[in-house]
Amino acid sequence: MTDKLIIFDTTLRDGEQSPGASMTKDEKLRIARQLERLKVDVIEAGFAASSNGDFDCIQAIANTIKDSTVCSLARANDRDIARAAEALKGANSARIHTFIATSPLHMEKKLRMTPDEVLEQARQSVRFARNLCGDIEFSPEDGYRSEVDFLCRVLETVIAEGATTINIPDTVGYAVPELYGEFIRTLRERVPNSDKAIWSVHCHNDLGMAVANSLAGVKIGGARQVECTINGLGERAGNCSLEEIVMAVRTRRDYFNLEVGVDATQIVPASRMVSQTTGFVVQPNKAVVGANAFAHASGIHQDGVLKARDTYEIMRAEDVGWSANKIVLGKLSGRNAFKQRLQELGIEMASEADVNTAFAKFKELADRKSDIFDEDILALCSDESVTHENEHFGLVSLSQHSETGERPHARVFFTMGGKEVEGEADGNGPVDASLKAIEIHAQSGAELVLYSVNAITSGSTESQGEVTVRLQHGGRVVNGVGADPDIVVASAKAYLSALNKLHSNTQRVAAQG
Ligand code: KIV
Ligand code: ZN
To answer: How many Å apart are CA 50 and CA 511, to the nearest integer?
Structure first.
């Protein structure tokens, strides 16, 4: 018989913990809907007690998503757990995921608790959670570096209290595949009531082995849930990547003999949505979702693939959602066609007025660019002037002059707290001049730590440029993304978007630390 492998997506929780990846409520909802279309089993929507903003996002996702279980993280205390339960009230299927650190280092240095105190807190928390929700996941944080005998005692206790999933995090990405797989197997063999819970793996990618470790946890250890994120998004080197896990298990079904319920054709759309939303660009040679993942450049390979695809291809690009850039709309497309395409892409606008704004932006774009692709529509709909989110700053217009041998000059009109202002500056290049012109009034004092430009659709200089700007200020890191056929305008939009995020100033409690 073939077992099912549960896919637990934590893009919106562990992924979002990555500095600069924080998302707005609308962005999170949009991604949650895409995760539902992708048919992931569990969506970890956030950490309800970490901030009111996170609570609202989880509540909105719980009220919207019907087909996937919606989960909230909670530290092992009654307040966090009650807050998670409250946020999840409207869910069709809800899960509370509670955690406490169990490694000697974390217990002594971070929690300043004895092992017995940790064990007791884990017991009480799962007991409390179980009275509020039937589906409880427990994670011993830094589980992989925990002492086995103690960990077995904790896990036996929480299963006896009603934990239904036991997740073993490699919090710091220290594991290697065989050892991690054997660690899970040992725990399952030694915990007397281990058969009463589903075992799960949660690996970080600090040594580049998150996917390999997770697969070893499944194959050697017998885990039946994998925790992962789209594009491997996450703090430091990221989390285990969903697309790699799913396609490894699918492509090597002969070896893993497991079913996954995911609709793989939604993988690339999900990857694009997450990278466009967060500004975390996918490296071209990234497995499955990188732009070159299916590009056969060498003559020998091209010749082979033309004769028989499986000479060099182990997966088909279309099976994971790659389609040749499809021209979806053009200058003559009407509002109905535009609205229908939004629906097909899973983009829900808050009101008809927002559809009108987006349609007007689409028409403007279609006047400047003959072919409009799905990626253009996705970028257009994430624009803050369409979503009306955090709009303290907004671009009105920009002009710049650059000429060989002359110092470039820019003049930018933008809104700041509802008032229109005009800034002018010189710079090393037109982008530099434009951002300086904005900064004259914005006075953010933020440090620019990343600036990158990518073509949204490849193959033509007509493509829109998508600019990501990362700003750091007062210990906070934010990303702004902007798209436009003119990369100087895209840069100004990205800069203003990052300033909006800095301005919204949402603070939250970290899950680890
Ligand atoms: O990596 C980790 O330990 C976590 C836990 C909170 C599950 O993300
Ligand atoms: Zn984690």
So the answer is: 8
- Cα 281 to middle of ligand 1, angstroms: 24
pLDDT digits (tens, 9 = 90+) for 256-274: 999 999 999 999 999 999 9
CATH number reported for the structural domain that contains residue 417 in this entry = 3.30.160.270
Shortest-distance ligand to the CA of residue 234: 2
Task: Tell me, in angstroms, the distance from the centre of ligand 1 to residue 119's CA.
Answer: 17
Residue-range definition of the domain harbouring residue 54: 3-278
Residue 108 forms part of a structural domain: yes
Work out the number of other CB atoms within 10 angstroms of the CB of residue 388. 14
Distance CA 25, CA 58 (A): 9
pLDDT confidence bin for 510, thresholds 50/70/90: low
pTM metric for this prediction? 0.87
Is the minimum distance from the CB of 69 to ligand 1 under 6 angstroms? no
Where would I find the beta strands (DSSP E) of 79-127?
A: 94-101
- Taking only the tens place, the pLDDT of each residue in 371-384 is 788 778 888 887 76
CATH number at residue 256: 3.20.20.70
Q: If you take atom 1 of ligand 1, which residue's CA is the nearest one?
A: 171
What dihedral do alpha carbons 382, 385, 386, 389 form, nearest 10°? 70
